[in-house]
């Protein structure tokens, strides 16, 4: 079975945690003791039915306030597919948590309350999902039971969201009317909405095709660890361990090690279970080469005729995650794949208004949860791809030098120095 990672997003009280609880409950993905515990808590609070949101809202503050604060991960499986769910917050002040949960997702579920329609947070989270390169979106119009399962309400929301989503780089959007509280169109098709002819949510999650989402063309292998001989019996052994970021590596392939540019050929690829003929993302492997060349942590193996950009400058979109604002000239650590280097934010080009997607130029800082375009210079060369080509080699985080806190997540849109354009439009 393959694995689908998906996240939930949307405005406050749209029913994200309840939806996940319903998915787990109806698909038999919870244990009896878990069900007994939430039944007891629901009775103690005077609820008429089980509050399935308690399955994911695990923090005391979340239970007391009835909101999601931190990202909660849940795991379940059906006979067709395994799932990892990231339940992310809806509050604007926890946008950074939403970014964290969605950064590794294959699909995002955007919940919309049928009574309220498309809100600011709905647009914000859809934009962030697009920015993070999530290729599949499901717009789940929840609480249809509270609007009498009215088809016109669903179609109005679908039309409004579709018109706005045309601005986003997402080409697979599925709209599903649901009631997470009662289970309509969550696992089973709803008899209350005979006008809806599409799949249930779980059916769509089981069948959405993600095999073509990974980059299997641009071979990238960031070296995480160099395995050296540990005894005289293995004095000739030298392997390079890490996780394949993109592309496919095969025994006998010619490779180049960056940034040195030294070339060799793959002699062996090993996993924990033994040798393999080929490795693809997200496999963790050890690669041995025919030649003993100087390679260390943070270097990258790739194909001689398909290489990333080696540069000390990059342009990127960043989501700011720290209470202290980001200002041009500030210095941080930048972690890209397995390499961490010193970095300086040279320029803040503009900030994005997530409601209109307009650029706000002339800004002097990025505050908590804001998104903007920056120019960064680093202390030593990095092997960079555009984020749209590879989420692994096109993404990075910024780390505060003093506190070691992660202060930003970044998506590279221009690896290398900026090109100057002459009046005729040609790059100089």
Question: What does this protein look like?
Answer:
The chain has three domains: 3-207, 3-Layer(aba) Sandwich (Rossmann fold), CATH 3.40.50.300; 220-302, Translation factors (Elongation Factor Tu (Ef-tu), domain 3, Beta Barrel); 309-415, Elongation Factor Tu (Ef-tu), domain 3. Strands 7, 8, 9, 11, 12, 13, 15 and 16 form an eight-stranded antiparallel beta sheet that branches. It has helices at residues 16-26, 32-44, 60-65, 95-102, 120-131, 151-165, 201-207; strands spanning 3-10, 72-77, 82-87, 107-113, 136-142, 172-177, 220-222, 225-227, 239-243, 249-250, 254-258, 262-271, 274-276, 278-279, 284-289, 300-302, 309-320, 331-336, 339-352, 359-361, 371-384, 395-399, 406-415. The protein has 428 residues and is an alpha+beta fold.
Distance between the termini: 50 Å
Number of spatially distinct domains: 3
| Overall body shape | globular
- CATH superfamily of the largest domain, please? P-loop containing nucleotide triphosphate hydrolases
The CATH architecture of the largest domain: 3-Layer(aba) Sandwich
Measured by DSSP, the beta-strand proportion falls in: 25-35%
Question: Could you list some keywords that capture this structure?
Answer:
disordered C terminus, six-stranded mixed β-sheet, 23 strands, 428 residues, eight-stranded antiparallel β-sheet, Rossmann fold, 3 domains, 7 helices, single chain, globular, alpha+beta, Elongation Factor Tu (Ef-tu), domain 3
């Amino acid at each position: 079975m393959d694995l689908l990672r998906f996240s939930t997003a949307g405005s406050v009280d749209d029913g994200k945690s309840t939806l996940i609880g319903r998915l787990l409950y109806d698909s038999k993905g919870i244990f009896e003791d878990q069900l007994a515990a939430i039944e007891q808590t629901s009775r103690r609070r005077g609820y008429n039915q089980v509050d399935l949101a308690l399955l994911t809202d695990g923090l005391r503050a979340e239970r007391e306030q009835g909101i999601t604060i931190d990202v909660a991960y849940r795991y379940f499986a059906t006979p067709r597919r395994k799932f990892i769910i990231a339940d992310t917050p809806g509050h604007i002040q926890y946008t950074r948590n939403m970014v964290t949960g969605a950064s590794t997702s294959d699909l995002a579920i955007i919940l919309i309350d049928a009574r309220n329609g498309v809100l600011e947070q709905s647009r914000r989270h859809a934009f962030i999902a697009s920015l993070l390169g999530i290729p599949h979106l499901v717009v789940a119009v929840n609480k249809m039971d509270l609007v009498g399962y009215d088809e016109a309400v669903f179609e109005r929301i679908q039309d409004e969201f579709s018109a706005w989503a045309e601005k986003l780089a997402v080409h697979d959007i599925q709209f599903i009317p649901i009631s997470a509280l009662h289970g309509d169109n969550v696992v089973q098709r709803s008899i209350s909405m005979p006008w809806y002819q599409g799949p249930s949510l779980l059916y769509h999650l089981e069948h959405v095709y993600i095999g073509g989402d990974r980059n299997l063309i641009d071979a990238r292998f960031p070296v995480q660890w160099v395995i050296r001989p540990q005894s005289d019996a293995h004095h000739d052994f030298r392997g390079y361990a890490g996780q394949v970021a993109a592309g496919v590596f095969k025994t006998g392939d010619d490779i180049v090690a960056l940034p040195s540019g030294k070339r060799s050929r793959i002699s062996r690829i090993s996993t924990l279970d033994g040798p393999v003929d080929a490795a693809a993302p997200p496999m963790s492997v050890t690669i041995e080469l025919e030649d003993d060349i100087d390679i260390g942590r943070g270097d990258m193996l790739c194909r001689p005729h398909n290489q990333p950009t080696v540069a000390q400058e990059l342009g990127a979109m960043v989501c700011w995650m720290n209470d202290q604002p980001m200002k041009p000239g500030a210095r941080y650590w930048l972690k890209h794949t397995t390499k961490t280097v010193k970095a300086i934010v040279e320029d803040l080009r503009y900030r994005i208004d997530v409601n209109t997607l307009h650029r706000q130029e002339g800004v002097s800082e990025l505050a908590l949860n804001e998104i903007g375009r920056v120019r960064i210079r680093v202390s030593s060369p990095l092997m960079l791809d555009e984020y749209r080509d590879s989420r692994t080699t096109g993404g990075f985080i910024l780390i505060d030098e003093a506190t070691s806190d992660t202060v930003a997540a970044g998506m590279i849109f221009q690896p290398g120095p900026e090109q100057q354009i002459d009046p005729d439009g040609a790059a100089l």
